[in-house]
Write a structure and sequence with these properties.
Elements (H helix, E strand, L loop, with lengths): L1 E5 L5 E5 L11 E9 L4 H5 L15 E9 L11 E4 L2 E2 L27 E2 L16 E4 L7 E2 L6 H6 L3 H11 L7 E5 L3 H12 L4 E6 L2 H9 L4 E4 L6 H7 L6 E6 L7 H11 L8 H9 E9 L12 H6 L3 E4 L4 H13 L11 E4 L3 H10 L7 E4 L4
Parallel strand pairs: 10-11, 10-13, 11-12, 13-14, 14-15, 16-17
Antiparallel strand pairs: 1-2, 3-4, 3-8, 3-17, 4-5, 5-9, 6-7
The structure holds zinc ion (ZN) (2 copies).
Protein backbone atom coordinates (compact mmCIF):
# COMPACT_ATOMS: atom_id res chain seq x y z
CA UNK A 1 0.00 0.00 0.00
CA UNK A 2 0.99 3.67 -0.29
CA UNK A 3 1.74 5.44 2.96
CA UNK A 4 3.26 8.61 4.29
CA UNK A 5 6.61 7.71 5.87
CA UNK A 6 8.79 9.78 8.22
CA UNK A 7 12.44 9.90 7.14
CA UNK A 8 13.72 12.42 9.72
CA UNK A 9 12.93 16.04 10.58
CA UNK A 10 11.30 17.89 7.67
CA UNK A 11 11.55 14.73 5.54
CA UNK A 12 8.23 13.22 4.54
CA UNK A 13 7.98 10.65 1.77
CA UNK A 14 5.21 8.57 0.25
CA UNK A 15 6.40 4.97 -0.06
CA UNK A 16 5.21 1.41 -0.50
CA UNK A 17 4.64 -0.35 2.82
CA UNK A 18 3.14 -3.73 3.67
CA UNK A 19 -0.61 -3.50 4.12
CA UNK A 20 -1.41 -3.86 7.86
CA UNK A 21 -3.09 -7.09 8.90
CA UNK A 22 -5.20 -8.25 11.80
CA UNK A 23 -2.76 -8.95 14.65
CA UNK A 24 -5.27 -9.41 17.45
CA UNK A 25 -8.86 -10.70 17.48
CA UNK A 26 -10.12 -7.19 18.33
CA UNK A 27 -8.40 -5.46 15.41
CA UNK A 28 -10.03 -3.96 12.36
CA UNK A 29 -8.28 -2.93 9.17
CA UNK A 30 -9.67 0.31 7.79
CA UNK A 31 -9.28 1.45 4.19
CA UNK A 32 -8.73 5.15 4.64
CA UNK A 33 -11.00 7.44 2.65
CA UNK A 34 -9.89 10.78 4.01
CA UNK A 35 -7.47 12.05 6.62
CA UNK A 36 -6.06 15.32 7.85
CA UNK A 37 -2.79 16.82 8.98
CA UNK A 38 -3.01 18.22 12.51
CA UNK A 39 -1.05 21.10 14.02
CA UNK A 40 0.31 18.56 16.47
CA UNK A 41 1.68 16.51 13.54
CA UNK A 42 4.03 19.43 12.97
CA UNK A 43 5.76 18.66 16.29
CA UNK A 44 6.59 15.24 14.81
CA UNK A 45 7.57 16.76 11.46
CA UNK A 46 9.95 19.14 13.20
CA UNK A 47 11.55 16.29 15.12
CA UNK A 48 10.36 17.73 18.45
CA UNK A 49 8.56 14.65 19.75
CA UNK A 50 10.78 12.11 21.53
CA UNK A 51 11.10 8.65 19.99
CA UNK A 52 9.68 9.51 16.60
CA UNK A 53 11.14 6.66 14.60
CA UNK A 54 12.18 6.75 10.99
CA UNK A 55 9.85 4.61 8.90
CA UNK A 56 6.68 5.29 10.87
CA UNK A 57 3.47 6.66 9.39
CA UNK A 58 1.75 9.68 10.97
CA UNK A 59 -1.92 10.57 11.00
CA UNK A 60 -4.38 10.44 13.89
CA UNK A 61 -7.28 12.08 12.06
CA UNK A 62 -8.90 9.76 9.53
CA UNK A 63 -12.11 8.11 8.40
CA UNK A 64 -12.57 5.14 6.15
CA UNK A 65 -14.34 1.93 5.27
CA UNK A 66 -13.89 -1.28 7.24
CA UNK A 67 -11.85 -3.67 5.11
CA UNK A 68 -11.44 -6.61 7.50
CA UNK A 69 -12.21 -7.42 11.13
CA UNK A 70 -10.69 -9.80 13.65
CA UNK A 71 -12.75 -12.78 14.86
CA UNK A 72 -13.96 -11.15 18.08
CA UNK A 73 -15.09 -7.81 16.61
CA UNK A 74 -18.87 -7.51 16.96
CA UNK A 75 -19.78 -3.88 16.32
CA UNK A 76 -18.20 -3.43 12.89
CA UNK A 77 -18.36 -5.33 9.64
CA UNK A 78 -16.58 -4.96 6.31
CA UNK A 79 -18.07 -2.15 4.28
CA UNK A 80 -19.04 0.03 7.26
CA UNK A 81 -18.12 3.71 6.86
CA UNK A 82 -16.47 4.66 10.14
CA UNK A 83 -14.78 7.53 11.91
CA UNK A 84 -11.95 6.71 14.31
CA UNK A 85 -11.03 8.81 17.37
CA UNK A 86 -7.37 9.79 17.58
CA UNK A 87 -7.14 8.00 20.95
CA UNK A 88 -6.26 4.33 20.99
CA UNK A 89 -8.07 2.95 24.05
CA UNK A 90 -9.21 -0.36 25.46
CA UNK A 91 -12.60 0.68 26.83
CA UNK A 92 -12.36 -1.42 29.97
CA UNK A 93 -9.46 -0.32 32.21
CA UNK A 94 -9.81 1.85 35.34
CA UNK A 95 -9.42 5.03 33.29
CA UNK A 96 -11.55 4.05 30.30
CA UNK A 97 -14.32 3.04 32.73
CA UNK A 98 -14.31 6.69 33.85
CA UNK A 99 -14.40 8.05 30.31
CA UNK A 100 -10.73 9.06 30.40
CA UNK A 101 -9.99 7.51 27.02
CA UNK A 102 -6.89 9.65 26.52
CA UNK A 103 -5.43 8.05 29.65
CA UNK A 104 -6.03 4.38 28.87
CA UNK A 105 -3.73 2.15 30.87
CA UNK A 106 -3.51 -0.71 28.39
CA UNK A 107 -2.36 0.79 25.12
CA UNK A 108 1.05 2.32 25.68
CA UNK A 109 3.85 0.20 27.03
CA UNK A 110 6.34 2.99 26.36
CA UNK A 111 5.20 5.58 28.87
CA UNK A 112 3.39 6.00 32.16
CA UNK A 113 1.90 9.42 31.31
CA UNK A 114 0.90 9.45 27.65
CA UNK A 115 -1.92 7.25 26.41
CA UNK A 116 -2.12 5.73 22.93
CA UNK A 117 -2.52 7.73 19.75
CA UNK A 118 -2.42 6.76 16.09
CA UNK A 119 0.67 7.90 14.24
CA UNK A 120 2.15 9.87 17.08
CA UNK A 121 5.58 8.34 17.77
CA UNK A 122 6.53 5.54 20.12
CA UNK A 123 6.03 7.99 22.99
CA UNK A 124 2.33 7.55 22.24
CA UNK A 125 2.45 3.79 21.80
CA UNK A 126 4.08 3.34 18.39
CA UNK A 127 0.84 2.89 16.40
CA UNK A 128 1.06 3.60 12.69
CA UNK A 129 -1.35 6.31 11.59
CA UNK A 130 -3.91 6.93 8.91
CA UNK A 131 -1.99 9.00 6.37
CA UNK A 132 -1.93 5.81 4.36
CA UNK A 133 -4.23 3.66 2.27
CA UNK A 134 -4.87 1.30 5.19
CA UNK A 135 -4.50 1.42 8.96
CA UNK A 136 -4.82 -1.13 11.74
CA UNK A 137 -7.32 -0.12 14.43
CA UNK A 138 -7.02 -2.04 17.72
CA UNK A 139 -9.99 -2.43 20.12
CA UNK A 140 -12.21 -1.91 17.10
CA UNK A 141 -15.40 -2.44 19.09
CA UNK A 142 -14.82 0.57 21.36
CA UNK A 143 -13.15 3.35 19.33
CA UNK A 144 -14.65 3.65 15.85
CA UNK A 145 -18.24 4.57 15.17
CA UNK A 146 -20.31 4.06 12.04
CA UNK A 147 -20.76 7.51 10.48
CA UNK A 148 -24.40 8.57 10.25
CA UNK A 149 -25.58 8.77 6.64
CA UNK A 150 -26.36 12.47 6.91
CA UNK A 151 -22.80 13.39 7.94
CA UNK A 152 -20.32 14.37 5.18
CA UNK A 153 -16.87 12.79 5.02
CA UNK A 154 -15.12 16.11 5.64
CA UNK A 155 -17.23 16.88 8.71
CA UNK A 156 -16.55 13.38 10.03
CA UNK A 157 -12.79 13.90 9.71
CA UNK A 158 -13.12 17.06 11.79
CA UNK A 159 -14.80 14.91 14.47
CA UNK A 160 -11.73 12.71 14.92
CA UNK A 161 -9.77 15.40 16.77
CA UNK A 162 -10.03 19.10 15.93
CA UNK A 163 -13.69 19.73 16.77
CA UNK A 164 -13.93 17.53 19.88
CA UNK A 165 -10.63 18.90 21.19
CA UNK A 166 -11.75 22.50 20.70
CA UNK A 167 -15.10 21.75 22.31
CA UNK A 168 -13.38 19.95 25.19
CA UNK A 169 -11.14 22.99 25.66
CA UNK A 170 -14.21 25.14 26.15
CA UNK A 171 -15.77 22.54 28.46
CA UNK A 172 -12.67 22.42 30.67
CA UNK A 173 -12.88 26.20 30.93
CA UNK A 174 -16.06 25.74 33.00
CA UNK A 175 -17.50 28.78 31.23
CA UNK A 176 -20.26 30.54 33.18
CA UNK A 177 -22.90 32.71 31.55
CA UNK A 178 -21.45 36.03 30.47
CA UNK A 179 -17.80 35.06 30.94
CA UNK A 180 -15.05 36.74 28.98
CA UNK A 181 -13.15 33.91 27.25
CA UNK A 182 -9.74 34.38 25.65
CA UNK A 183 -8.54 31.74 23.19
CA UNK A 184 -4.81 31.70 22.44
CA UNK A 185 -4.23 30.39 18.92
CA UNK A 186 -6.48 30.63 15.85
CA UNK A 187 -5.64 27.22 14.43
CA UNK A 188 -8.36 24.58 14.00
CA UNK A 189 -8.59 23.74 17.71
CA UNK A 190 -8.66 27.40 18.73
CA UNK A 191 -11.34 28.20 16.15
CA UNK A 192 -13.54 25.34 17.36
CA UNK A 193 -12.90 26.26 21.00
CA UNK A 194 -13.95 29.85 20.30
CA UNK A 195 -17.08 28.76 18.50
CA UNK A 196 -17.89 26.29 21.30
CA UNK A 197 -17.45 28.95 23.98
CA UNK A 198 -20.54 30.74 22.67
CA UNK A 199 -22.57 27.54 22.96
CA UNK A 200 -21.58 27.38 26.63
CA UNK A 201 -22.74 30.90 27.41
CA UNK A 202 -19.68 33.08 26.95
CA UNK A 203 -20.42 36.80 26.91
CA UNK A 204 -17.24 37.69 25.02
CA UNK A 205 -14.83 35.57 23.01
CA UNK A 206 -11.42 37.01 22.11
CA UNK A 207 -9.01 35.08 19.87
CA UNK A 208 -5.28 35.86 19.88
CA UNK A 209 -2.84 34.96 17.10
CA UNK A 210 -0.35 36.71 14.85
CA UNK A 211 -1.56 35.42 11.47
CA UNK A 212 -4.09 37.89 10.08
CA UNK A 213 -5.73 35.38 7.74
CA UNK A 214 -6.46 33.10 10.69
CA UNK A 215 -7.77 36.01 12.78
CA UNK A 216 -10.09 36.77 9.87
CA UNK A 217 -11.44 33.23 10.17
CA UNK A 218 -11.82 33.72 13.93
CA UNK A 219 -14.07 36.69 13.13
CA UNK A 220 -16.10 35.03 10.38
CA UNK A 221 -16.26 31.41 11.57
CA UNK A 222 -16.14 31.89 15.34
CA UNK A 223 -17.69 35.40 15.54
CA UNK A 224 -14.91 36.38 17.92
CA UNK A 225 -13.11 39.62 18.67
CA UNK A 226 -9.50 39.28 17.60
CA UNK A 227 -6.10 40.48 18.79
CA UNK A 228 -2.94 40.28 16.72
CA UNK A 229 -0.27 39.93 19.39
CA UNK A 230 2.41 41.17 17.02
CA UNK A 231 0.73 44.59 17.11
CA UNK A 232 1.13 44.94 20.86
CA UNK A 233 4.23 45.48 22.94
CA UNK A 234 2.73 43.25 25.60
CA UNK A 235 -0.36 41.29 24.64
CA UNK A 236 -1.10 40.44 28.27
CA UNK A 237 -1.37 44.13 29.18
CA UNK A 238 -3.66 44.64 26.20
CA UNK A 239 -5.89 41.72 27.22
CA UNK A 240 -6.08 43.04 30.79
CA UNK A 241 -7.08 46.47 29.52
CA UNK A 242 -9.93 45.04 27.53
CA UNK A 243 -11.21 42.95 30.46
CA UNK A 244 -11.72 45.71 33.07
CA UNK A 245 -8.08 45.34 34.14
CA UNK A 246 -9.01 42.16 35.99
CA UNK A 247 -8.21 39.63 33.31
CA UNK A 248 -10.37 37.15 31.44
CA UNK A 249 -12.58 34.70 33.32
CA UNK A 250 -11.30 31.83 31.22
CA UNK A 251 -8.23 31.45 28.99
CA UNK A 252 -7.94 28.50 26.62
CA UNK A 253 -4.42 27.67 25.41
CA UNK A 254 -4.89 26.21 21.94
CA UNK A 255 -1.27 26.71 20.95
CA UNK A 256 0.86 24.20 22.79
CA UNK A 257 4.49 23.58 23.35
CA UNK A 258 6.10 24.69 20.18
CA UNK A 259 4.07 27.85 19.79
CA UNK A 260 4.87 29.18 16.38
CA UNK A 261 8.51 28.39 16.25
CA UNK A 262 10.93 31.17 15.69
CA UNK A 263 8.58 34.08 15.65
CA UNK A 264 7.12 33.55 19.09
CA UNK A 265 10.43 32.49 20.54
CA UNK A 266 11.93 35.66 19.16
CA UNK A 267 9.15 37.87 20.45
CA UNK A 268 9.24 36.33 23.88
CA UNK A 269 13.00 36.32 24.13
CA UNK A 270 12.99 40.02 23.37
CA UNK A 271 9.89 41.10 25.21
CA UNK A 272 9.11 38.66 27.98
CA UNK A 273 12.61 37.45 28.82
CA UNK A 274 11.47 33.86 28.92
CA UNK A 275 13.99 31.16 28.41
CA UNK A 276 13.96 28.97 25.33
CA UNK A 277 11.70 25.96 25.67
CA UNK A 278 9.36 27.66 28.06
CA UNK A 279 5.68 27.36 27.25
CA UNK A 280 4.95 30.88 26.09
CA UNK A 281 1.26 30.52 25.45
CA UNK A 282 0.71 28.86 28.81
CA UNK A 283 2.43 31.70 30.61
CA UNK A 284 0.37 34.23 28.68
CA UNK A 285 -2.70 32.31 29.80
CA UNK A 286 -1.63 32.39 33.45
CA UNK A 287 -0.94 36.13 33.20
CA UNK A 288 -4.06 37.07 31.23
CA UNK A 289 -6.65 35.22 33.32
CA UNK A 290 -8.18 36.94 36.36
CA UNK A 291 -7.50 35.80 39.89
CA UNK A 292 -9.61 32.74 40.62
CA UNK A 293 -10.10 32.11 36.89
CA UNK A 294 -9.62 28.96 34.85
CA UNK A 295 -6.91 28.10 32.35
CA UNK A 296 -7.80 25.26 29.99
CA UNK A 297 -4.88 23.76 28.11
CA UNK A 298 -5.60 22.08 24.75
CA UNK A 299 -2.31 22.75 22.99
CA UNK A 300 -0.18 19.63 22.85
CA UNK A 301 2.66 19.48 25.34
CA UNK A 302 5.34 16.84 25.48
CA UNK A 303 6.70 15.61 28.79
CA UNK A 304 9.40 18.20 29.53
CA UNK A 305 8.89 21.89 30.05
CA UNK A 306 10.58 24.52 32.09
CA UNK A 307 9.72 27.93 33.45
CA UNK A 308 5.96 27.62 33.81
CA UNK A 309 4.86 30.53 36.01
CA UNK A 310 3.53 28.14 38.57
CA UNK A 311 3.97 30.51 41.51
CA UNK A 312 1.75 33.06 39.80
CA UNK A 313 -0.83 30.37 39.10
CA UNK A 314 -0.77 29.42 42.79
CA UNK A 315 -1.00 32.94 44.16
CA UNK A 316 -3.80 33.88 41.77
CA UNK A 317 -5.78 30.83 42.86
CA UNK A 318 -6.17 29.54 39.34
CA UNK A 319 -7.78 26.35 38.23
CA UNK A 320 -5.64 24.66 35.58
CA UNK A 321 -7.39 21.98 33.57
CA UNK A 322 -5.99 19.90 30.73
CA UNK A 323 -5.99 16.49 29.11
CA UNK A 324 -5.93 14.73 25.81
CA UNK A 325 -9.51 14.96 24.60
CA UNK A 326 -11.50 11.74 25.09
CA UNK A 327 -12.92 12.05 21.58
CA UNK A 328 -15.47 9.27 21.64
CA UNK A 329 -17.15 10.78 24.71
CA UNK A 330 -17.77 14.03 22.82
CA UNK A 331 -19.45 12.56 19.76
CA UNK A 332 -23.09 12.22 20.86
CA UNK A 333 -23.37 15.89 21.84
CA UNK A 334 -21.33 17.15 18.88
CA UNK A 335 -23.45 15.16 16.43
CA UNK A 336 -26.50 16.89 17.93
CA UNK A 337 -24.86 20.30 17.52
CA UNK A 338 -23.94 19.56 13.90
CA UNK A 339 -27.40 18.26 13.08
CA UNK A 340 -28.92 21.35 14.68
CA UNK A 341 -26.72 23.54 12.47
CA UNK A 342 -24.59 24.97 15.28
CA UNK A 343 -21.42 23.83 13.49
CA UNK A 344 -20.46 23.14 9.90
CA UNK A 345 -17.12 21.60 10.80
CA UNK A 346 -15.52 21.66 7.36
CA UNK A 347 -15.91 25.44 7.18
CA UNK A 348 -12.33 25.61 8.45
CA UNK A 349 -10.92 23.26 5.78
CA UNK A 350 -8.73 25.22 3.37
CA UNK A 351 -6.79 22.52 1.48
CA UNK A 352 -7.53 19.09 0.02
CA UNK A 353 -4.29 17.34 -0.92
CA UNK A 354 -3.85 13.84 -2.40
CA UNK A 355 -1.84 11.35 -0.33
CA UNK A 356 0.90 11.32 -2.99
CA UNK A 357 1.53 15.01 -2.21
CA UNK A 358 1.28 14.77 1.58
CA UNK A 359 4.77 16.26 1.89
CA UNK A 360 3.43 19.45 0.38
CA UNK A 361 0.68 19.55 3.00
CA UNK A 362 3.29 19.39 5.76
CA UNK A 363 5.42 22.05 4.11
CA UNK A 364 2.54 24.49 3.57
CA UNK A 365 1.18 23.89 7.07
CA UNK A 366 4.55 24.20 8.76
CA UNK A 367 5.49 27.38 6.91
CA UNK A 368 1.93 28.79 7.16
CA UNK A 369 1.81 29.40 3.41
CA UNK A 370 -1.17 29.89 1.12
CA UNK A 371 -3.45 30.97 4.02
CA UNK A 372 -3.59 27.38 5.23
CA UNK A 373 -5.79 26.58 8.23
CA UNK A 374 -6.68 22.90 7.88
CA UNK A 375 -5.38 20.51 5.19
CA UNK A 376 -7.24 17.30 4.39
CA UNK A 377 -5.52 14.30 2.85
CA UNK A 378 -7.69 12.71 0.20
CA UNK A 379 -7.17 9.26 -1.26
CA UNK A 380 -7.10 8.72 -4.97
CA UNK A 381 -10.14 6.69 -5.93
CA UNK A 382 -9.05 3.07 -6.22
ZN1 LIG B 1 -4.94 16.19 15.66
ZN1 LIG C 1 -8.34 1.58 28.79
Amino acid sequence: MRAMVYRGPYKIRVEEKPKPRVEHPNDAIIRVVMGAVCGSDLHLYHGMMPDTRVGTTFGHEFIGVVDEVGPSVQNLKPGDRVMVPFNVFCGSCYFCARGLYGNCHNVNANATAAGGMYGYSHTAGGYDGGQAEYVRVPFADVGPMVIPDWLDDEDAVMLTDALPTGYFGAQLGSIAEGDAVVVLGAGPVGLFAARSAWLMGAGRVIVVDHLDYRLEMARTFAHAETVNFAEHDDVVVHLKRTTDHLGADVVIDAVGAEADGNFLQHVTAAKLKLQGGSPIALNWAIDAVRKGGTVSVMGAYGPMFSAVKFGDAFNKGLTLRMNQCPVRRQWPRLLEHIQAGHFKPNDIVTHRIPLEHVGEAYHLFSAKLDNIVKPLIVMDPA
